[in-house]
Structures are given as structure tokens and as C-alpha cells.
Amino acid sequence: MADIIFLTGGSGFLGSHILIQLLEQGYHVRAAVREKKATHFKQSYERFKDQLEIVAIADIATDQFPDALKGVKAVIHTAAPISGRVNDAESLLKGAVEGLLNVIHQAEKAGITRVVVTNWHQTTKEAALQTEGVTAYSAAKTLAEREVWNFAEAHPHIEITTINPPLLYGPLAEGFSLPNPDYPALSTNLIIYKFLTPEGTFPAYPLYLDVRDAAKAHLLALDSAPTSQVGRKRIIISSPHEVVFADIISTINAKRPELKDRLIKTPPREFPYKRLDVDLKRLEEVLKMKVEDFTPLDDTFLDTIDSLLTLEKQWTAAGFDIKIPS
Questions:
Q1: How far is 21 from 6, CA to CA, in rounded Å?
Q2: In sequence order, what E strands does the chain have?
Q3: Residue 294, SS3?
């Protein structure tokens, strides 16, 4: 029988890519999904038949699901409250931290010894409570990660890997469904969607990772070397490609000339750096991931634009007006 992976956040931007890669590599996946999404979620992946099980939950922070963890090889936890739907930082922090702790404590009780978690950002709880939006979301994930390492120190028999990327861009995965213009659900792809309006804004910094590469890193962590050999597996990962937003817009203009009149006209931001100087030796040591394994820069941005336009056409055909948030 194929290894069973328990996945949270499988309906999200990153989680849906992890789900597809797991299924296509032959894993059996038990995906924890909110009750109201469960039926539609299962229908979206019908081609995988019994390879995918749905675990309907009401609240990842409080629900108990011991039966769903039986026979599981590893847990991949990506679930967290969406910043655009939870208005206050305190609720974001509580949801992210309590959700993570609930999952990993149940996993340890079930005898699962390998956990992979997504996190990024640096902050303190006091500072995080003063933030909002994506910043608050990132801060919440960071505070959750600190709880992961506290847990790891108390449970050294558990193999834990945290994947720490910057902004994630890339096409929407198969099965990712947005029947109406729910812009926060686009996650960080909303930042790229703003390239498709003249009054749009550029990202706050040029660091990014293709969501497909982020998903790949999570899968590689499932079979990574033990902590006793490679040390704490806190993986800082970012695209090795240099980002110059003026060049990216020129590429979109050249490759997608039909978008000329709607492309962002705001002057591109300039930065003293163009990429994060990631320790590629560390990536290769722990995840066996090399620079040539990363998605090319142009593919990331063009694939993202194409995917967003496909979704936009679906919304328009359904009678929705499109208003890209500023």
C-alpha cells in the first residue's frame, strides 16, 4: 500500500500544489478540509479516485481526528487563517498557533514521527499584534513555527522540517476552485494580479519562490535525512533568480502583447538587492534541491498571468464584474 500523508490546507494556493504533487507521485492523501468545502473538494479530484480521502473538519484548532491519523507516514501542515478574511491580528495569531499545535500534538499521539510545516517572516508576538493583512498572516505563521521548535525540543523523536519561503507566485493548481471573485483566496498571487491594471502596485520586495518549487520542497522533506545527520531542518528557500520588475513587465508586454493596454503603468520599484542569497548547499544537503531544479523566472510570472486570466474569464462568463483590488 502507498504511504499515507495527512495534509492540511489542501484547498489553498500552496496546499493544492502539494496535494497534486503527492497524488501524482503515488502517495495516498488524507486531506483535512473545512466541512462546507468537503463535497466540492472531493469532486475536484475525482480522477484520483480512492487515492484521496477527505477528512471534514469544523475547526483545525479544536477538532479531534485520531482515526484520520491511523497508519499515516507523515503530516504536512499548511493550513492557516487567510489574512483577507480574518480582520484582526490576534485572531490570525490564535488560529495559526492553536491549529498547528492541535495537529502536531495529535500526530505525536498517533505515533507519527515526521512533520513538515510551512512558515516565514520574523517578528515578536507584541509586534505581530500591531500588524494586519499579509504581514499579520506571515507573523502568525512565524509564531506558530516557534511553537514547532519548542515542541521539537520536547519530542526529539519527531522529525520536523519547516519550509520558509518568501512570497509565493505561480499558476493555480488543478482542483483549485474560485467560482466567484474571492480575491483574498488568491493569496500572494493577488500581488501579481495587480500587474493587470494600469493603477496597480508592485510587490514590497523582489524576493519570491514559485509555488510549484515550494510544493516540491515539502515533498522532498518527507524523505529528508534525519536531524541527527543534518541538524535542525529549518529550510530558508527562495528563488535563485534575480528580479527586476521593469524587466518582468517588459517580458509580459513582449510575450502577451494583447495585455498592453491593461498592464501596470506605475513606475517599477527599485531595490538594492534582486534576490535572497539562499544557502544552496544547505538546500542540497537537506532536500537534495539544486539551482537547476527551480522554475525559470519568466515561466513563473507568465504562468501566473495566464492562470489568473483563465480564472478571470470564468468569472466574467459567470456574470461577475472584475475589480482588481488596489
A1: 14
A2: 4-8, 28-34, 52-57, 72-77, 114-118, 159-164, 167-169, 208-210, 233-236
A3: coil
Domain boundaries, the chain: 4-170+210-241+274-298
Closest CA to 118 of 188, 30, 195, 26: 188
Question: Regarding beta strands 233-236 and 52-57, do their DSSP bridges make them parallel or antiparallel, or are they unpaired?
Answer: unpaired
What is the spatial distance between Cα 284 and Cα 148, in angstroms, rounded to a whole number?
23
Angle of helix 280-287 relative to helix 211-221, nearest 10 degrees, comes to 50
Grid cell 487567510 is found at 82
Q: Is 178 helix (H, G, I), strand (E, B) or coil?
A: coil
* Cell numbers at 85, concatenated: 478574511
What secondary structure letter does DSSP report for 316? H
Distance CA 305, CA 189 (A): 9
Rounded to an integer, what distance in angstroms lies between the CA atom of residue 48 and that of residue 158?
A: 30
43, 44, 37, 42: which is closest to 54 by C-alpha? 42
> Residue 1 is which amino acid?
M
Report the pLDDT value the prediction gives residue 140, as an integer from 0 to 100. Answer: 58
Name the phi and psi angles at 17, rounded to 5. Answer: -70, -40
Q: Which residue has the cell 498571468?
A: 305
Neighbours of 229 (CB within 10 A): 9
As averages over each run of 10 residues, the pLDDT of the chain (326 residues) reads 93 96 98 92 93 94 95 93 51 73 95 90 37 49 78 94 94 94 93 97 95 98 96 95 97 97 93 92 95 97 98 97 92
Task: Give the three cell numbers for residue 99.
Answer: 491549529
Q: Which one of 3.40.50.720, 3.40.190.170, 3.20.20.150, 1.10.3720.10 gives the CATH number of domain 4-170+210-241+274-298?
A: 3.40.50.720
List helix spans (H) across 45-199: 89-109, 125-128, 133-154, 189-193
How far apart CA 9 and CA 224 sit, in angstroms, is 22
The answer to whether residues 305 and 189 touch, using CB atoms and an 8 Å cutoff, is no
**Interstrand relation of 72-77 and 4-8 (parallel, antiparallel or unpaired):** parallel
Q: Which three cell numbers stand for residue 271?
A: 531595490
